[in-house]
Structure formats: structure tokens, C-alpha cells
């Protein structure tokens, strides 16, 4: 494939011209935004640069209805500046918007009101005085609103109210005190890119209908492969609908590499295949095995040490056992950043074993891949360059809006051979451009969402150094939390030692349990503490953090930090809130 080259498409901004902190750049952007979006640009710039008073915050009440704008007119000015009677959304329907005749003005008015709703939500997401969640039980929401679909259309006033209601009860995943999932935060450039992607509304299967996006995917995947350590960024890859699908792609390609006949003849034509992964790995490996007909019983779980890292000697032992039974080991999936402990498997040792037994090595770095952007922390993935494939989810540690997951493959052309079906209505061989840019045939999907633009635009805005600062900050916050609670009364660490990722796993022990002996009764009562505190967090709406059991360990909190909006004060708040909500248990 010919390289699109550097310049506009490439990463980095050595002259600082793309720096969002540069006032001249910011103001120039505002002028462009105002020129093309009118009121939207004015309001956004006012929010960003303080040129208008901050809108009043009204805690639990719904945003005011935007029910009127200037009506459509018959003049020929573009954009129209005529003053007409106000639009009444109660008498307008979707059929009055573009492409309807005279639909331009009501369309612009409607979309500006939608934008007002969105911008209010964005600003509230970063306001610590607002709730992370306005929690209602499912039956309450079902009874409070009519969510059913009808034969007759609703007017645009009702449509705007649905937008407001939906966001009113949505979780503010960008809130600085939302710690519940691996994917948190709300990046403004990523958000803008997502809006643009939806506006373009195209498919990723051919260059002819997604020329810029296909080129950006090529450039971005190549850059990611370079960071992994593959010479010159060589290889292949694709953006997929999440890490689970990326892992399944790896399993699919590894099987094809060993037994290409499986593509036409199916599993009946190959021997019993065995995959290996750690007991702390993501459940998607078993899901992929089930979906591909390999079977969950053919996924062997390898023992981990007390920190959650795969034990290489146990991996080799299980490989030898499988071979002695006549089975064929075809894939080892190591994890770089496990979901619960945040553990990094010893990739160099795993690579040596895979090389010894000629087994495909996959690294699930969905959670930990972002650390490759940090000079301080990338050593934790030493050996990833020896992998045959890597899953990397920028929508986790790098803060790219959902969804954004990449599967990177070291051998170029293998994905194409594995998945292509030569659909002649899409992939004609006599097109007038370089057909290597028609990448759709290497994907399992036909319709494929544009996920790359969010990552590419954020990378242009931040630079690699911006992502590095983001990641280093989150790791520092995790260490800050660990240092506070490791010797604090009422806290017990799930495992000893400083965490390798932002995962901090701990029990909160209420005063009533601190005097009990460490026995079955105490464990039974302790298992109920985290679920109750979590429920109270959600009902008050103050913060959210996840909990779970693991193996023989009863429910414990798993704190993760990936939101750059979080601060030391938010960590302090979390500790105080856990104690406030759990002291009476």
C-alpha cells in the first residue's frame, strides 16, 4: 500500500500550531466556528473562554424547553437574516426539516436547540456540584415516562424533550468523580470528532465512499504499530467494535494461519485446537472460542501469581499436557493490564514459550496499551513487540470517546486472506484508484463505523506528549490513592505492593467488623459491604466505583482512573464518601 505521506495527515505539531492552549489558535477556531455555525459557535466560545456569564445551574430540574426560533422565509440571502415570526415546534415534525422544501431554517433552528441541550450537558458533566447519576429504578423510569413507539409521529417539541429527558437520567461518564469503568472522561476534541463522524455518516469499506477516513485509518494504525515496536510500523490492522471483537479477530487469524483450510471446510477439517490465557484474562477469549466453534472447553486458563500475572512455568506445563493428548496449541493470549488487578503478564517469558512451541502470541492490551505512550510506564509492556497480534483500546486509558478499539497484526496481508470474500458489488477490480485502500474485505463486518477520526483528531490536538501527560497523571493519582489507604484504619489491600496500573483494589472494613476474627463469618459480612456502599453512592449520586469478587476473595472495590479531569481532591472525596456511606454497616 502506498503511504499517504506526512503533512496534514501525520501526527505531531512541532511548530505548536495545533496547540489547543495557544490563544491565537483558539480564537481563530472560534471565528471559524461562528462563521459556519452562528449561535452555536458563539455559545461554545462563550463557554470555553468566559465571554458570557455562566448559565445558572438548577440541580435536579430539566433544562428549559427550546420551543421557538425564527421561521423560514422566502428571501434568497444565504444565510437568511430576515426577521419572521417565531417557529413553534409544537406544530412542526421531522418532515418539516431538510430535505423538505423550505426546510433549511427550521432545520438550523432545531439543530441549534439540540446543540444547546448537548452543551449544557457537557458543562454540567465537569461541575462537581452536580450528580454523577440521577438514579431511578427501572420500573420507576418505565412508569414515569412513555417510552413506547407509536404509529403516528410526535412533534419536534416532544422530540427535544426526549433529548433532555434522556440526558437527565444518563450517567455523566465525564464527571471527575465517575470511576466505575475503564472508559471514563469526556474529551472535547474527541466529542467534536464524533459529531463530525455522525454528520459524515459513511461506511469504512471502500476508499470511494470514505476517502479521508480510510487514509486516516492507514496512518493511525501504522503509527500504533510503530509504537508497539514493529519495524517501520509494518503489518496490518483494523478498528473494530470493541476489545472483545479485536480479541476474536486475533483468534480467527491465528487459526487461519495454522490451518488455512478451515476457512472453506470448517472445524471438521482441523484437529482439536487449544488456546491458553491467564485465569485473570478477559472473558472475551472464551466468548470468541464459542463464536468460532472452537469451544470454551478448549480455552485453558493458566494460573496467576498473587499479583494476577500469568505464571510462565504453568503455561509451558499446560502446553505440554495438551500436546500429549494429541491436541494442537494454536494461540496464547497474554494480558497487558488485566481488568480487575491491572496486572501485566511477563510478555518476554511468554514470547519465549510461544517461539519454542511455534504458537501464535496475542497480547490483549485493551486496557494497558495506552501505557505505550508513556516513557515512564511503557516498560511494563516489554516484549509486546514480539507478539503476532495486539489488541489496543484507545477508548480506555487514552480517553477517546467510545468506541475505539484496534487489532494490530504483525504480518501484512494475513487479515485479508483470512476474511476476504471478493464481493463484486463493492470490491470491483477495475476501479480507477489503488485498490489496496479498499480495506473492507479484510473485516468481518460489511457495515463498519468510522472509529478512527476521534483518535486521529485527538492525537493531532494533544500530540503524543499530551497522551503521555494524561496517562502519567492517572497513574500518579492511583499511586496517591494507594499511599493514603494502604495504612489507613478501615482499609485492607487485596494484594500487597503498589499497583502497576491505575487499578487499586481494596476492602473497606466498617467499624463493626474491625474487631472480628478473620473467619468465615467475617468474610460473609464483609462481602455485603461493598454492594451496599455502591448502592448508596448511586442513590445519592455523589460518585461511582466498581466492586466484584474474584476467586476466593469476597466483594472488594476496584478503583480505576482514566479520566484526566480527576484530581487529588476527587480521590480524597472518594475516600471520605466511602467512609460516610459505610460507617454504620
From TrEMBL:
Keyword Cytoplasm: yes
Enzyme class: lyase
Leader sequence segment: none
EC number annotated for this UniProt entry: 4.1.1.15
GO molecular function: glutamate decarboxylase activity; pyridoxal phosphate binding
A single BP term in Gene Ontology: gamma-aminobutyric acid biosynthetic process
Assembly information from the UniProt record: Homodimer.
Protein name: Glutamate decarboxylase 2
Native organism: Equus caballus
Organismal lineage: Eukaryota, Metazoa, Chordata, Craniata, Vertebrata
